[in-house]
Amino acid sequence: MGKPRVYVTRIIPDAGLDLIREYCDAIIWQDELPPPREVLLRETRDADGLVSLLTDRIDGELLDACPRLRVVSNMAVGFDNINIPEASERGVLAGNTPGVLTETTADFAFALLMAAARRIVEGVDYVRAGKWRTWGPMLLMGADVHHATLGLVGLGRIGAEMAKRARGFDMRVLYYDVMRREDLESSLHLEYAPLDMVLANADFVSVHTPLTPETHHLMNGERFEQMKPSAILINTSRGPVVDTEALVVALQKGEIAGAALDVTEPEPLPADHPLVAMPNCIVVPHIASASSITRGKMAEIAARNLIAGLNGEALPCGLNNDVVGKGRNAMPRDWQLFTPEAE
Ligand code: DGY
User: Is the CB of residue 279 less than 8 Å from the CB of residue 251?
Assistant: First the structure.
């Protein structure tokens, strides 16, 4: 009996890759950039499993081009790059990597908030440009974080961790979510408010929603007008939740004071994009979950999801485990896998 064939669309940390190599015949795309679409379609044609990243579009076309594919394991918590109904329809299991990146991402969102409030990037640029000649009583004055009001748009796992961090800075925390979380309000000292009220009262607005048709361009021109002119927007969720062009206008017109973005639309944002040049906008390359430990854990979960799917078992972090034993997932296997012990 041979091993299952899998395609991995980038080099991922060894914690995942070692497991994948042990149990599977793996082809691993070596480039820094994602495989071009035609390469992904060609390389996955005979694959039983696929480890994808948020840069790979997994849709009906791909699933049809790869008739043996029975599991898609995304190394990310977000899975807006995968068409889950199309996968389920064909009996293809899909998984993601929730939980392990929650605190790391919240740490980073709070770091962005502080960097934007206290103009840290501008300060670094100032020193690097040789402009630092003396202590200046008016130099690079920013906004206080302590005792300010944080507005959370979305109160999932990462939003809730952000609230905990804000508490340490004696911030007032308002939140809006489609699902009110009364269970968390007293333990995390949160106040629920409709979105326009959150925006109107917050000094910092931090976005923590998944990307869905409902949240696409949720933060648009009208929303920026509702914010305080002194407010700062932080986005560590998905780029398209914010309307980029409307954000450029809002920053140019002074409708809001600043922005700090880990995610953008488009992604990557071209170096000559107006947001990149604006001193009151920080743009970083989608690195909120990028601590060595967290990325290792994400890779390991992705590998365990993949192996479970190849075994025909429910994925530890499955998005459609109801398809176990159905469609492609029920096809006979010409390999014998053993599930590795969890440490
Ligand atoms: C995710 O996991 O969805 C992040 O955007 C990348 O870690």
Answer: no
What sign does the CA torsion over 290, 294, 295, 298 have? negative
Query: Given 286, 295, 304, 328, which residue is catalytic?
Result: 286
Bridge-partner residues for 27, per DSSP?
7
Question: With the CA atoms of 11, 14, 15 and 19 taken in that order, what torsion angle do they form, in degrees rounded to the nearest 10?
Answer: 90
Q: Domain map of the chain by residue range? A: 5-100+292-330, 102-283
Catalytic site includes residue 267: yes
Provide the CB-side half-sphere exposure for 251 (13 A, CA).
19
Cβ of residue 109 lying under 6 Å from some atom of ligand 1: no
At 302 the three-state DSSP class reads helix
Q: Which mean pLDDT values do the consecutive 10-residue runs of the chain (343 residues) have?
A: 94 98 97 98 97 98 97 98 98 98 98 98 98 98 98 98 98 98 97 98 98 98 98 98 98 98 98 98 98 98 97 96 93 82 63
For residue range 226-282, list pLDDT tens digits in order.
999 999 999 999 999 999 999 999 999 999 999 999 999 999 999 999 999 999 999
Pick the CATH number of 102-283 from 3.60.15.10, 3.40.50.720, 1.20.1250.20, 2.30.22.10: 3.40.50.720
Sorted by sequence, the CB contacts under 8 Å of residue 291 that are 6+ apart come out as 104
Question: 34 — phi, psi (to 5°)?
Answer: -65, 155
Tell me the pTM: 0.96
| Whether residue 78 has its Cβ less than 6 Å from ligand 1 | yes
